[in-house]
Amino acid sequence: MSKRQNTAEEEAGAIDLTPMLDVVFIMLIFFIVTATFIKEPGVDVLKPEATTAELKAASILVAINENDEIWIAKEQVDDRLVKVTLERLYAENPKGWLVIQPDKKASIEKVALIADAARRIGIEKVSVATEKS
Predict the structure, then answer these.
(1) Taking CA 57 as the corner, what is the angle to CA 51 and CA 60, rounded to the nearest 5 degrees?
(2) Helix 108-121 × helix 82-92 angle, to 10°
(3) What is the DSSP letter of 108?
(4) Which residue windows are transmembrane per the record (predicted)?
């Protein structure tokens, strides 16, 4: 008889962790859904210097190396496919920024090509990355 009373008392004092686990799981899902993922360009560039450089967050990074090759999401992209690739990335994150990272030796025509494609798609927040001098 005393064994039954002890078991009942132990069960009454036990804390049910199921609601807490449910809350933690819902929070995890919330953070995963609302997270912004940055697509790295896939190539390192030497950015030009500027006196008015400021740090901004970006979700779409496009790099132009010294050979005027365009890199988006770790893949080299042909000039004719820049708009299509940017459309795909912008559809994944419509609130995202576009940052163009040109090399010091990259031509301004490539920067203009990417900026023009971004404006045609509807990306309003376009920046050019530089190093602060």
Answers:
(1) 110
(2) 50
(3) H
(4) 20-38
**Which tokens is 115 given?**
């900026």
Q: What is the DSSP string of 51-81?
A: TT------SEEEEE-TT--EEETTEEE-GGG
59-78 burial, b for 16+ CB within 10 Å, e for fewer? bbbbbbbeeebbbbbeeebe
pLDDT at residue 47, rounded to an integer: 61
- pLDDT given for residue 120 in this prediction: 92
Q: Please report, for residues 26, 100, 105, the alpha-carbon distance to residue 111 in angstroms, rounded to integers and kept in the order given.
A: 42, 7, 12
Distance of CA 84 to the CA centre of its chain: 18
Residue 122's contacts (CB-CB under 8 Å, 6 or more residues apart) are: 90
Cα 96 to Cα 126: distance, rounded to the nearest angstrom: 10
The average confidence (pLDDT) of the chain is: 80
- Residue 111 has, within 13 A of its CA and on its CB side, a CA count of 19
Output the pLDDT for position 112: 92
